[in-house]
C-alpha cells in the first residue's frame, strides 16, 4: 500500500508542477478595473480552450496554463473591443495587464459574440460549445472540460469542490436528479448551456431562511433542435471469446417539450459492464427531501444489512447484466408538476479464485501445502418506482408529495474447497421490499412567518436468509480440479 500511495503522490506532483500562473488586471482606457471581463487561453497547437477566468471586482484574473506552450489570449467585455494576443509560455509564471477600448461600431452592427461563461448572482452559465473539442460523447465529457467542474471516482459531479445534489434537464428532474445517470447517458451534442445553481432550494419560500450554501444543482439547457423532437443514441456490438458469444446493446431515447418529457435508457451486455450496481441502487433516492434541514427525522434507507459481495467487480469469470429505466415529467398547467421514474436491473456474476499456499515451517503431521478453490455465484434483481407531484397555485402555498417503492431479490452462493479443511458451502438470500411516502406543505404568511408541515410514512419488510454447509456436495464440484475431488 505504501508503494501505491507514493506512486500516486508522484503523479499528482508532476501534474501540478507542469502548470504555471498567468495573471494580471483588465482595465478600461482611463484605468478603471473591469469586473466580469472574460479571459480565455486557447492552445495554439491543439486549438483547445485550456483555461478560463472571469475578473473580480478589482479587475484581476488568474489562469493556470501549461509550460513551454503557445497560447492565444482573448479578453472580452460587452461594449468593448476584444483584445487578443499570442504569448509563448516558458518555465516561469507570467503577469500581464490588458487595456480595453470602447467599441464605437456597436451602433452600426449587431453584436453576436456569446460569452463562454456568464455569472448572474448565484448562477453560473457555461456555453457548452465554447468548451467542446469535438470528441465528447456524453454529458460527463462536456462537464470535464468546464472550469471548476469535476466528476469524482463515484460518478458524482463536483463544482468548486462541492458535490452537486441535483441534475435537471430543461428545469425538470432527470431520474430524480441522479448525477451518475445524467453524465453517462445524456448525449453531448444535445447540450447547449450548463447552468450551475448555487444555494439551490427545493422550496422557494425557504430560500431566504435556510442554509443552502452546500446545495448546488445543475440544469442542462438543450439545443433548439433537440426540443419537441425525439433524439438519442443506440450502441450495439458483438464478438466472440474462447468460451461464449459476446454482445452489447445500449438504446437511449429522449423527448423534451415545454409540457412533458420522456427518457428511456437500456443496457444489455455480457462483457462485464454493470450499468446500475447495488451501490447505485441503495444510494439512489436514499432518503426523502427535507428542505428545511433543521427539523424532522433523518431516515437512512441505504442498506439491507447483508454482506453481499460488491457486484461492480468487472474482474470476474462471467458477468451478464440487463438494465432498463424510464423517466417522465408532465405539467398540465403552471401550478401542477407531475413526474416519476421506473428502474429495473438484473445481474448474474460468477467469480473464481484459486490459491496455493506452501508452509515453510511445518510441524509434525501438518501438510506441507494447501490448495484453496473459491467459487462464488451472485444473482441480483432490483426494481424501483417513484412518483412525485408538486402543486404551487401561488407564491404563498406549495404542496409536495412523493411515493417510492423498492423490490429486490438477491442471492449469493459461495463454495470453498480446501485440500486441508474440506468443503464449505455458504448461501445468502434476501427478498426485501419497501414503500416510502412523503408529504410536505409550506405556507408563507409574510416575510417573517413561514409555516411548514412534513410527514413521512415507511413500510418495510426484510427476510435475510443465511445457511452454511460443511462437507461434501458433489453437485458443486465442477470448478474444482479432478485430482482433488476424491479428497472430499
UniProtKB/TrEMBL annotation:
SUPFAM superfamilies: Carboxypeptidase regulatory domain-like, Porins
Annotated stretches, region: Disordered: 469-488
Signal peptide span: 1-18
Keyword Signal assigned: yes
GO molecular function: carboxypeptidase activity
Gene3D superfamilies assigned: Carboxypeptidase-like, regulatory domain
Keywords in alphabetical order: Carboxypeptidase, Hydrolase, Protease, Signal
Pfam families, per database record: CarboxypepD_reg
Protein known as: Carboxypeptidase regulatory-like domain-containing protein
